[in-house]
Write a structure and sequence with these properties.
With about 550 residues, the chain is of the alpha/beta class. The chain has helices spanning about 20-25, 70-100, 125-130, 150-160, 170-180, 180-185, 215-220, 225-235, 265-270, 310-315, 315-330, 375-380, 395-405, 410-430, 435-440, 440-445, 455-465, 475-480, 485-495, 500-510, 520, 530-550; strands spanning about 45, 50, 200-205, 240, 245-250, 255-260, 280, 340-345, 385-390, 470-475. It has a domain at about 170-550: Rossmann fold (3-Layer(aba) Sandwich), CATH 3.40.50.
């Protein structure tokens, strides 16, 4: 049984309810209608049973027919259409935002996000060290072969901004102001009867004093504690006693293998240490000049206490003990005979890693570091010898990726990371100099792959502003792999090492290669041809300049 909700009158089956002025009357007046005014309301009966008064729902409609007929249908369709458009818009916005973040857009974004923000309100040091908070790196669409033209435009922009400008070398007094303690520890003259730079330093401790108690290398790494446990046991046996005072022999390296990573420096180190006249630091890569002296163990972990220069010198104590034994025996037997033992250090970060400068040197010029690692090494050791091992920068980058990437490694993932890194580098060179971008900590940490390490000529030119060209030996890994005997002879001659017996030479040159690619990385295969073409284009102008500086077209890497 149905009822009219306006006047509570029973509806007939054919829905013709003409008695109700509210429902059918065109001249219906709300003020005159007793039903609308609420008068004479009577209980509603359903099946001869009286309903409760509170159960009666009175609904008034002030407009004409609410949702009935054709008008109601059209309004419903309109609402449905509007609702659908809203949903579609939300889906598209979500797609665009997600695609821009993860590199899934079908069309590359026209916006390139750089490593720096052009914000004049930021101080120089803030705009470089804190810039990671001001931008989010974006990824290009990776359709591999199809996206080559888009990436080529980025490379063309980078190439157009390349300028090799000679840097201003700081004077000695400026360096002293920056590192007064280092200058107070290391003398400006060394023992004349030692080929290696060494000097005697007074030791004021007693027999109960642990000389290595505060050494940061021993405190932060369990691997080095065994070495320092041995050094403690033999320490007092190697002190030099003179006029009731105790002296210890301190040494710096005679030569440095300064770079580059994944270019064969470990293999060169392992072979050189087999030479009877060569010693190395207690650990292969102390990274003191580039990181530890600034308190950096891993940059992503923040800063720790700075490693003082004494901690670095402790690493050469084993070699210093052997040099001292030669000097003492010579003093008693053959005065005037020179010590020929030399010490090397093989931190592959020395050539390129100046990322920490922004946190310590605030008088920068347009984002460029005012002091570089080589400035300080030259201040103490103007006659130091430097060895650099290089390889095709394209292959170096892929090897670097395979070695340091932790998960989800693949040729496709490498391609995506290269594309993103190129975008970031482009954004930097649009606003800053090439040197500022190469040495920028924020950019280098933001790039998924270390493109900058392959810009060999940028670093080399900066080293040549401090050291003479004949103090630097530059080798190619490709030559070392194909003719190891030849490259090792070049190194022996450069370091002025004595002759070897056939057995000694065979041991050095015929031992297996060190630090080769891991089997699981070999299974991933080579990089994509498109990725190789992109990287060839990117590194080409830098390789060309390197070949010009060295007068050697082999550094163009055309045949690899």
């Amino acid at each position: 049984m149905r009822y009219c909700i306006n006047c509570c009158i029973h509806l007939l089956p054919n829905d013709l309810h003409r008695q109700c002025f509210r429902c059918r009357g065109p001249d219906h007046n709300n003020q005159k209608c007793p039903v609308c005014r609420g008068e004479n309301k009577i209980p509603l009966y359903s099946d001869s049973k009286q309903m409760k008064w509170l159960a009666v729902l009175e609904v008034r409609t002030d407009h004409c027919e609410s949702w009935n007929g054709l008008f109601c249908l059209r309004k419903g369709k309109l609402c449905s259409l509007m609702f659908g458009l809203i949903i579609m818009t939300l889906v598209m916005v979500s797609y665009i935002l997600t695609g821009a973040k993860h590199g899934l857009l079908l069309i590359p974004s026209p916006f390139h996000y750089g490593a720096f923000a052009s914000n004049p309100s930021l101080m120089d040091n803030e705009s470089l060290s804190d810039m990671k908070d001001h931008y989010q790196p974006s990824k290009m669409n990776i359709s591999y072969v199809k996206d080559y033209p888009s990436i080529k435009l980025i490379i063309d922009t980078i190439t157009s901004k390349i300028e090799f400008i000679t840097r201003q070398r700081p004077d000695l007094e400026e360096l002293r102001k920056q590192e007064p303690h280092m200058f107070s520890v290391i003398p400006n003259k060394f023992l004349p009867n030692s080929k290696n730079p060494c000097w005697y330093e007074e030791y004021r401790g007693n027999t109960t004093t642990d000389p290595y108690a505060t050494n940061s290398y021993a405190l932060y790494s369990k691997r080095f504690r065994i070495i320092f446990d041995y050094l403690r046991k033999v320490f007092w046996n190697h002190l030099y006693h003179y006029k009731d005072k105790h002296y210890r022999l301190r040494c710096l390296p005679h030569f440095y293998i300064i770079g580059q990573p994944k270019c064969g420096t470990t293999d060169l180190y392992d072979r050189l240490r087999l030479h009877p006249d060569v010693r190395f630091s207690a650990i292969k890569e102390p990274h003191w000049w580039t990181r530890k002296r600034f308190g950096i163990i891993r940059l992503r972990d923040g800063f720790h206490d700075r490693y003082p220069v004494e901690d670095y010198l402790d690493l050469f104590d084993l070699a210093a003990h052997q040099i001292q034994s030669v000097l003492q025996s010579d003093a008693g037997k053959e005065r005037g005979k020179r010590n020929n033992i030399i010490i090397g250090e093989a931190s592959a970060s020395t050539m390129w890693d100046n990322n920490a400068w922004i946190f310590f040197y605030d008088n920068s010029t347009e984002g460029e570091p005012p002091f570089l690692i080589q400035d300080f090494i030259h201040a103490f050791q103007p006659n130091a010898k430097l060895i650099i091992m290089l390889r095709d920068p394209v292959e170096r980058l892929y090897s670097d990726y395979l070695y340091f990437a932790s998960a989800n490694k693949s040729a496709e993932d490498f391609h995506e990371k290269v594309a993103e890194s190129l975008q970031l580098f482009e954004g930097c060179v649009l606003d800053y100099s090439l040197r500022a971008c190469v040495y920028n900590n924020t950019l280098n940490n933001a790039m998924p792959v270390r493109l900058q390490i392959g810009l060999y000529v940028v670093y080399l030119l900066d080293w040549l502003t401090v050291f003479n060209k004949d103090q630097i030996l530059i080798l190619r890994l490709e030559d070392h792999a194909s003719n190891m005997r030849y490259t090792m002879h070049m190194v022996f001659q450069f370091l002025d090492l004595g002759p070897l017996s056939e057995k000694q030479e065979a041991l050095i040159t015929k031992s297996p290669a060190s630090n080769t690619r891991r089997p699981e990385d070999r299974s991933l295969g080579p990089m994509l041809p498109t990725t190789k073409a992109i990287l060839r284009d990117f590194y080409r102008p830098f390789n060309t300049k390197l070949a010009q500086v060295l007068f050697d077209d082999a550094f163009l890497w055309k045949r690899t």
